[in-house]
Write a structure and sequence with these properties.
The complex is a heterodimer of chains A (207) and B (593). Chain A is an alpha/beta fold and 207 residues long. Chain A folds into two domains: 2-128, 3-Layer(aba) Sandwich (Rossmann fold), CATH 3.40.50; 140-206, no CATH class. Helix content of chain A is 48%, strand content 12%. Chain A contains nine helices and seven strands. In chain A, the strands form two sheets. Chain A has a five-stranded parallel sheet, sandwiched between helices. Chain A has a two-stranded antiparallel ribbon with strand order 4-5. In chain A, α6 crosses α7 (167-176). Chain B is an alpha/beta fold and 593 residues long. Chain B has helices at 12-20, 37-50, 71-80, 87-90, 102-108, 133-142, 151-154, 169-184, 188-193, 195-201, 204-212, 245-252, 280-288, 306-309, 322-333, 351-357, 374-393, 396-412, 418-437, 441-462, 506-517, 523-540, 544-547, 576-592; strands at 4-8, 28-30, 55-59, 94-97, 126-129, 234-237, 260-262, 297-301, 339-344, 361-365, 463-465, 471-473, 478-479, 484-486, 491-493. Chain B has a five-stranded parallel sheet, with helices on both faces. In chain B, strands 7-6-8-9-10 form a five-stranded parallel sheet, with helices on both faces. A three-stranded antiparallel sheet of chain B has the order 11-12-13. Chain B is elongated. The chains are: A alpha/beta (207), B alpha/beta (593). Chains A and B meet through β5, α5, α6 and α9 of A and α1, α2 and α5 of B.
Amino acid sequence: MIVILDDTFIARHKYSDVSYLADEKYRNLCMIFDRPTKKDFRNIVVDFKNIHLLCNHRSLKLFNEDQNIIDGKQAIQNLFIQAQSENIPRLEFGRDMHSNFKAKTLDKDVFYSNLKSFLDNYIDTKQMELKILFYGENYAELEYLSTIDRMMDEINFSNSIDFKNNELILTGIRLVFPDREPLDIVDEWMNKGLSKKEIITIINNQI
Amino acid sequence: MESIYLISDFSNKIKRLAESLQLPAQNIISYQYKENESGYHTWLNDEFKAKEIDKIIIPVSISNDDTINTIGLLLGLHIRLNYELSLEKRLIPIIFLSNFTVENLIKVNSFDSDNNPQNLIFTKGVYFSSFDIEDIQKTIISSTPCLKADYYKNVLSKLNINRKEALGGHDIANAWGCFKVAQVVGFDDRIFQLYPIAKHLKQLYAKNLICKNQTFSNEKRIDLNPIKCNGKKILFIDDKADEGWAELIKNLFRGAGDNFKYVDSSKYKADDLHKSFKDFDGFYKECQSHIGKDWDLIIIDLRLNPEKEDIDNELTKPTDFSGYKLIDEFLTKNEGYQIIVLTASNKIWNINAALKRGAYSYFIKESPEFNFPISETKKLLDKFKNDVKVCFHRGYLKQIFKEKDDLIHFINEMEYGSDFLETLKNQLNLAYYLLSKAETNEQFAYAYVSLYMIIETINNHFVVKTTNDVWVLNITNEPLLDWSYDAKAKSYINTNTTVFGSKPPEWQKLAGLHFQNWNGQEQSFVQKIYQLITKRNGFIHNDKSILDKTKKDKNGEDVLDNEKKPIYLNHDIYKPEGFIELFKVIQKVIGSL
C-alpha cells in the first residue's frame, strides 16, 4: 500500500485529474490523508508492514479531530523516523520543489501527473518503480538515453584503444545498434579511423 | 584575457573537461542543488556578483542523479533573467554542452512546460557544443555576448515562461503588487529583502516579467512623498501583512507614527513555507476587536483566507469573502468608517459588492499577468493617495453617524406619536445617507435641505393652527406669540400678540417653542436657527442675495480671505461644514423635545 499525506489534496482536483483515486482499483492501493491526525499516524505505524511507500507534502500540517491545525512538527518528524527505521521509502513533494531522484524530492505537479502511471505499473508488475513518479511512464526511454549519454561521455574521455574493454561503451552500442555485435562496431570505427567527434555524430544520427 | 567559467557537477567528465580546457580552479563554479527556483536565483546571483565572468560553460545535463536532464538550461535562464545583475553580466555568452545534437536534445527530452527552457537555446548569445575539446575551444573563441539592443527582441520575446498553475496566484500577486508599489516609493530595496516577497520574485516567471518590463529601470523611485497623515489613526488588515504589506503600508503612512496599527497575521499562521493560517478564526477575532474604535482610515484586504477564498477556477460570492464580512461588521457599527479595500487586479470585479456596502474606494494589488509599466503603478498609487486624502476629509461622517445613532436612540425613548418619531428617524437617516454620498456642491446642499426638514417636521407637530385660525403650541395649548428680532436690543422680543392667519415662518415657530415651551433663553440659538433656515431658503429659491452674501467690515466693504477672495457667509451649505452646523442645532432641538 502507498500512503499519501497531503493537506493540500482538497484543492488538487483543480490542477490534475485525481478522481480516479476514488475507484476501487486504486482506493485499496493508495490511501490519502488530506486532514491527517495523530490517530491516523498511529494507525499508519501499526500498519507499517503493509506500507511500501510513504509520500508527504513538504509542509504537511497535522489536524485535530475537529479538523483544526495543531502543532504537529514533532509528531510528523517521529512518523518519518519510524518509517525510516522500518526501511519504508519516503518521498517528499512540494510546490515548486526541484525534482531530485536521489534526494527523493519532487515537484507536486510532477508527482500527481505521474501518480496514475506509477500506480498502474505497480498494479501490473507488483514492482514499485519510483522513477515513474519522477520521470513519467516513459522513464525507460530516459534511461535508454542516459545510457547512450554515458557511452558518449566514455567515448569522449577514454582512449580509443580501450573502447573494446569499456563496458559502458559496449552497453551503449548494444542499445544504439541492437542488430550488430558491439565489438564489430568498435572495429569498424577504428578501421575507418573515425575521430571521436565523427563517432558521436554517427551515434546521434542513429538515435 | 577573458574569464571563462564552467559550472561543474563534479562528474568525471566535467573534471576532465576542466583539465583539458586548462581552466584555473577558481573558474570552476560548483553546481549546488537547490530545492526551488528562488534558491537557484540566489546562488547564481551571488556567484555572478562575486566574479567577473565573461563567458560561461554549462553542461545541459547536470549530474543530479543517473538520469539525463536539462537543469543546465534552467541555470541559463536564471542567468539571462537575473534582473539583479547589470545587462552586461546578464548577456554574457552561454555555451551549453551536450553529447546530443540540438535536434536530438529537443527530440528526446520532455521539457518543463511552464518554463520551456529549450527556448533559450534559440536566443542570441547562446551557443551549443559537444564535449569535444576542439569544438568547445572554437565555440569559446567565436562566442559573443548578446547585444543589449537584442535583449528584448532576440531573447525575452523568444522565451515562453508561464506561471506554474499550482503556484498560488494570490501569493505571487501579493508579492508582485507589494514590490511594484515599493519601487514607486523607493522602498523596494527593503521589501526585496523580505523572504516572502523575494521567493516569489525569484521565480523564473516573475523574473521574465521583470526583465521584459525593465521593472528595475531608472524609472523607479518616482514618488518619495509620504502620505500626510499626522495624528491620523490608521488600521491595516491583510492576511499578507506579515509578508511585506504591513511594512510597505506602514512606510506609506509613516507620518502617523504609532497611530498606524495592523493585525499581525504571522501570529496565526503555520510555520511552513506557504504561511498558511493555522488559526484563521483567531486572526479574524483580532480583526473584529478593532470594530468600534476610533479609526480615521481602515484598509482591508478582500480575501483574508485565500486558501478557502482564492482557489483558481472556483467562484466564491464576493459577499462570502472574509474581508467583505469584516467590512460589513465595521460599517454596521459605524457607517462613517472610511474603508479602502485591497484587491488583486486579476479579480477586480469582486470589489463591487464591498463598494456597494459602503467601502469608500479600492486599491489594486497588481497582478503579474498584466505586467503594467511602473508609470501605471504610480497612477494607481496616486489614486490611492487621493482616496486616502478624501477619506481623511470625510472623517466627519464617523462622528455624525455616531451622533445620529445616539439621537435615534434618544428618539426611541420618547413618548410622542410613533408616526412622528418614525418620520424624525427616517429624516435623520436620509440626511446622513445623502451626506455620505455627497461629492458635489449641490449634493451637500441637498443633504442640508434634507436635514432641515426635521425642523419643519417638529414645527408641524408642535405648532398647529386651531379652527379659529390661531397658531398654538400644542403641548400647552399656549398661543404662539409674534416673535421678532430687535436689532438694537440684539434680542428676540414679542408684543404679546397671538399669531393667527397664514402660516408663520419656520424660525418664528421654533422661536416660540424655544422661548415659550422649552423655557429657552438663548438669543443666539434662535438667531442661529434663523440664519440656517435663511440659508436653506436661499438655496431652494436660488436667491443669490442670500447665497452669495459676503462678510463685511464696519465700512461695508468685503472682508477678504488669504487668497484675497470675499468670504461667503452661506457657501458652507455646499460643504460638510454647513451640514454639521445644522446638525448641531437639530441635536439641540431634538434634545429639547
